[in-house]
């Protein structure tokens, strides 16, 4: 034990620097992950709830839904898209049964 240094810097310098770099990268990577998730959550809160409005924007739906008002089409889209498919064994999934507003 004669050749071992008695001071705090017992760990070799390259190993210590590699460890510090690893800790720095892990901490800042986790911080960046949390911040990006907060930004994504805020962005998703601002988007409309139905995929048609996200994809096509505020276009006129009178050609697709003739005789319907804009409020009726909006209500239809809000009722249709959040539904989960019903699972039926040995067949393909289908939409679950709903009546009226969810």
Strand-helix topology:
Elements: H1 13-46, H2 51-56, H3 70-80, E1 85-86, E2 94-95
Antiparallel strand pairs: 1-2
* Oligomeric state: single chain
**How would you write the strand order of the largest sheet?**
1-2
Rg over CA atoms: 28 Å
Low-pLDDT windows of residues = none
Q: How much helix is in the residues?
A: 40-55%
Count of DSSP-assigned helices: 3
Strand residue percentage: under 5%
Shape: elongated
The counted number of beta strands is 2
| Helix vs. strand class | mainly alpha
For the biggest sheet, the summary is: 2 strands, antiparallel
Our measurement of the CA-to-CA distance between the termini, rounded to an integer number of angstroms, reads: 76 Å
The figure for the number of domains is 2
Reading the helices and strands in chain order gives HHHEE
The overall pLDDT average reads: 76
Structure description:
It is a single chain. The protein is mainly alpha-helical and 102 residues long. It has two domains: 11-46; 49-84, no CATH class. The chain has helices spanning 13-46, 51-56, 70-80; strands at residues 85-86, 94-95. The protein has a two-stranded antiparallel ribbon with strand order 1-2. Strand 1 (85-86) and strand 2 form a beta hairpin.
């Amino acid at each position: 034990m004669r050749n071992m240094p008695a001071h705090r810097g017992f760990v070799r310098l390259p190993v210590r620097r590699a460890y510090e770099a690893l800790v720095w990268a892990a901490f800042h990577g986790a911080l960046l992950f949390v911040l990006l998730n907060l930004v994504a959550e805020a962005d998703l809160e601002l988007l409309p709830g139905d995929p048609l409005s996200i994809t096509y924007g505020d276009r006129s739906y009178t050609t697709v839904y003739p005789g319907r008002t804009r409020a009726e089409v909006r209500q239809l889209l809000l009722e249709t898209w959040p539904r989960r498919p019903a699972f039926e064994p040995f067949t393909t999934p289908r939409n679950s049964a709903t009546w009226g507003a969810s």
